[in-house]
Design a protein that fits this description.
The protein is mainly β. Helices cover 0% and strands 53% of the residues. The protein contains no helices and eleven strands. The strands form two sheets. Strands 2, 4, 5, 6, 9, 10 and 11 form a seven-stranded mixed beta sheet that branches. The protein has a four-stranded antiparallel beta sheet with strand order 1-3-8-7, with no helix packed on it. The protein is globular and about 40 Å long. The chain starts with a strand and ends with a strand. The mean pLDDT is 95.
Length: 112
């Protein structure tokens, strides 16, 4: 049984930073691509970033240069480092991996 648990969300002022974590259990973490998604109120869930088993990454255009996805295979954890946050980054952030397993989400609120 795969479990993904996000943490690190909160309230931050525009221009601030947060680091989200997603701890995985129940499967072989290192061989799986891991994803961060977000869903703002009234909007569809969107892909924010992906990191593959080899370490390659891709980002949504809206976060390029501000967000960084990383992973620590020894800790079975994927991170999303978010800098220069904007009010439009406000959303519930979810991690996804191991096919179609999702975490419960963590709220990020950026005040102007």
């Amino acid at each position: 049984q795969v479990q993904l648990v996000e943490s690190g969300g909160g309230l931050v002022q525009a221009g601030g930073s947060l680091r989200l974590s997603c701890a995985a259990s129940g499967s072989i973490f290192s061989i799986n691509a891991m994803y961060w998604y977000r869903q703002a109120p009234g909007k569809q869930r969107e892909l924010v970033a992906v990191i593959r088993s080899g370490g390659s990454t891709n980002y949504a255009e809206s976060v390029k240069g501000r967000f960084t996805i990383s992973r620590d295979n020894a800790k079975n954890t994927v991170y999303l480092h978010m800098n220069s946050l904007k009010p439009e980054d406000t959303a519930v952030y979810y991690c996804k991996g191991f096919g179609d397993y999702w975490g419960q989400g963590t709220q990020v609120t950026v005040s102007s």
